[in-house]
Batch of 4 targets.
Target 1
Amino acid sequence: MKEKKEIVENWLPRYTGTPLDEFGEHVLLTNFGDYVAWFAALHDVSIKGADRPMPNVTADGITLINSAWEVRTRRP
């Protein structure tokens, strides 16, 4: 099995479309896409990885990731 660090270094950029050095010090996962949009609007920043399984936004040292990929892919 790979080390957790190796998994994170590979997984986060691939599924979020965001380089590791652009993540905030704190990472929050949510399963509601509206939270990512709300956070982006609140901080006047762009959503990254909108074309990826896990759209995300970073502001003030916090990265919010929508991790509800399975839910989104099952919608008609």
Target 2
Amino acid sequence: MKPDGLILIHGGALGDFVLTLHLLQGLLNEFDCPARVVCRRSYHCLLAAVPQVEAIDLDGPVARRLFGEQADAALHEIAAELNGPLVVVDCLGTNLRSHRETGDRLLRIDPRDQSSENHILQQWAKQLATQGLTVSHARPTWLRQTPIHGDEKRHVIIHPGSGGNAKCWPLDRVCELIDRIQRDGWRVSVTLGPVELESWQADTLRRLEQSTSLITFVQLDQFVEFLQTVQFFVGNDSGPSHLANALGCHTLVIFQATNPNIWAPPGAQCAAPAYDGLPPSVDAVFNAWTDMTRACNTSST
């Protein structure tokens, strides 16, 4: 039975949420129905361009009740004006109960890596398949870049941070990479977000300023607007790298503490240096960067 509404509940970090948008696109392709997405308010800007999707604040008074005894009543409020059967995809472990007598389907996803082999989107699809729903993920069509013109085509953005220190490539290697890319004729800017601005030492920030220009963002919507004018992006396994890739940037992701076979942003525009559990060398990252830019130049000619 085709549902009259879709509800997706998510509470994870930015990178996980961007990956979930690929799942959301697959669900919208499958059902073509109105949807509600319960997520952090700061992520609502990533859904603003989707006419059939309404974003609900995860920390709002209604959504908070999803984790208590009134979870089912809260879902009823969230689903207001969705009069028919629903598909509810719970990625957060709420207190919702299944109500098959109404035709609703409650499907649960554990967003953590379960296999250490398959890409995480394949793992999520398998979890849904075991609950009776077959769906394929797809690139979110509403996340689009503006055309890149002129000198901006030789401009690369480097984001050296991540939500976890273990994912951050060593700073001395970042600075050496910046120097090598600049000597190759590129303009380089480093972007920093709230995590880096709040937690990094002042001498770290000064060292980056000595290497190149810094661009800082506090609000996610401002960062999204900026990324829509960026063609090339280099970063760690982090939310900004996933977001840049989803927006269509040619994205080089540096992996060391996590496995790109599981966590790499999906799509052909992501390149990851060889993964062996250790920080890759500057040569390895620079060679991956060169391969990516050459491939982009070849495909555009």
Target 3
Amino acid sequence: MSKSVRAMVCSLLIGMSASAWSQSALPTATIPAERLEQYSDLAVKWEQEYLQIDTTNPPGNETRSAAFFKKIFDQEGIENRVFDYAPGRADLWARIPHTSAQAKRPIILLNHMDVVTSDASHWKVPPFSGKVVDGSIYGRGAQDMKSDGLAQLVTMIMLKREKVALDRDVIFLAVSDEEANGTGTDWFITNQKQLLGNAEFLINEGGENLLSGTQVKYIGVDVGEKSPFWLHVVAHGRPGHGSRPIPDSAPNRLAQALNRIIAYRTPFKVLPVVEEFLHDMAPYQTPARAAQYRNIRQSLQDKRFQDDVEKD
């Protein structure tokens, strides 16, 4: 198993059982090393097969990836459904039910099957070859986000095969068209919302896991991301003939307005969850940066530090 997939599977299994298991009694701790290695080999095999499916968006053609997932879920006896909502486009839903008498609200493992375009002339290997080069698997979408989807798949398989006790349903959801218009997610919410079971948690792409060798030092979880702020700017000015410069013409005033927008610096606002995260991340930083992270509010009073943050 590639390091990235191994780390993601580990983090997902921890997340599935954090409420019911201690760190020393996680499900993976009870699985013999030989069987864990078999899961690793299976993950590499499936990862290569998944990366060989061309789901470049546009046009997507994610039905082929949905069929890939469905075949595996069917073989493993895991409940699943495929929804063909447009020509060549599909979403796949799968579920492992809770085993406890009283169930908490579900957790969703969400991933998208489409990938962005690629130019084979800039690649060491064909972008849909899934070849292993120097210990890494190459393929368009390996980072965004087929490796995540594959890790979620392996997690589902391990939960089922190892008969892990669950206090909530675990839902796997693979959607289409994330890279362009988001039609897969929109369609599912509009037409199959009941299958989400009023979920309490959802794990998607984002965050990062820090590895030291093969050991996971921490598991990163994103709680929010930047959002676009759309502006519609209209300029009015004195009209005139193009042969004469007009300082207060509409184009000039528009250019000046755009320059002001570009020069604007968003005020820093330290959210509690960000403050806690940076404080906990301090031990993994250089001594100077660690001191800044431990007191982020004070550090942000330093303009040089502000500049570093904006460039990061």
Target 4
Amino acid sequence: MFSSINSLLILLEKLFVVIGSIIYFIFALIIVKQATNFSKYIKDIFNTVITVVSMVHLAISGILVFLAFSLLMYH
């Protein structure tokens, strides 16, 4: 009995990780949108740096979503 409850809890934990990483990816998309709007309307020497950092953040969060899905599928 504990084996089935344990496996159910592990599955729920993995689903929460996947859902959390998807929400974090959406957050990263919003950051990219805000950074590009900032760069469009405010002229500063750091606009390129802010845009690049937000794009790298988006890429890392995309990798996180991929790893979360692979955790769900393979274990």
